[in-house]
Amino acid sequence: MKYELLKETAPILRVPCVEFDFTNPPCDPIELANDLNETMVANDGLGLSANQVGLDYRVFVIRANDNKPTALFNPKIVAASEKLIPLKEGCLSFPLLYLNIKRPEWVRIRYVNQHGETETNRFMGITCRVVLHEYDHMEGKVFTQVASKFESERALRKRTILRRRAKGQKDD
After folding, report:
1. Which residues lie across from 110 on neighbouring strands?
2. CB-CB contact of 112 with 118 (8 Å)
3. CA–CA separation, 149 vs 79, rounded Å?
4. Contact of 80 with 40, CB cutoff 8 Å
5. Which pLDDT tens digit goes with each residue over 51-81?
6. Catalytic residue (choose from 134, 139, 151, 153)
7. pTM over 0.85
């Protein structure tokens, strides 16, 4: 089942998600992981958090370096690089908005997979960035809150121009 993406103004995007309960699951975790992955792929995303489709669970899916879908339930950051790398990011919940954000070079995450097994993995490069972006979603933070105020305001102005151009309107 493919979910509908919420608009950037949806309140659930700014509230921390609740733990997914594997002892009394609210839904089948394997189906949930598959449905989130299907939605992510259909929207050309690299990651998708459950709250982006209106589900209040601490789970997100990513496309790992090998393009293999991975579901991370109840993730916890175990360690992260002190070295920060700046790079442009986009978000499925914020179409046409791209922000320059500094994130750690690598992160180690402990999580439960869709089969209820605990794993710990280290993610690097773009996959690290995607993991941290989706982790922020579960914490109730959107990427406009992670970027500097100046960067967010500049990107929002640029997006307004892009939208006008898409509609065939002139820039001011």
Report:
1. 76, 120
2. yes
3. 27
4. no
5. 999 999 999 999 876 678 899 999 999 999 9
6. 134
7. yes
**Known catalytic residue: 4?**
no
Rounded CA gap, 120 and 156, in Å? 36
Q: Which two tokens stand for residue 136?
A: 């922020």
Nearest one of 41, 80, 78, 37 to 59, comparing CA atoms: 37
| Phi–psi pair at 3, nearest 5 degrees | -90, 160
Q: What is the pLDDT of residues 110-154, one digit of tens each?
A: 999 999 999 999 999 999 999 999 999 999 999 999 898 998 899
> What residues contact residue 172 under an 8 Å CB cut-off, 6+ apart?
none
Distance CA 96, CA 135 (A): 21
Phi and psi angles of residue 132, each rounded to the nearest 5 degrees, phi first: -70, -35
State the CB neighbour count (10 A cutoff) for residue 134: 26
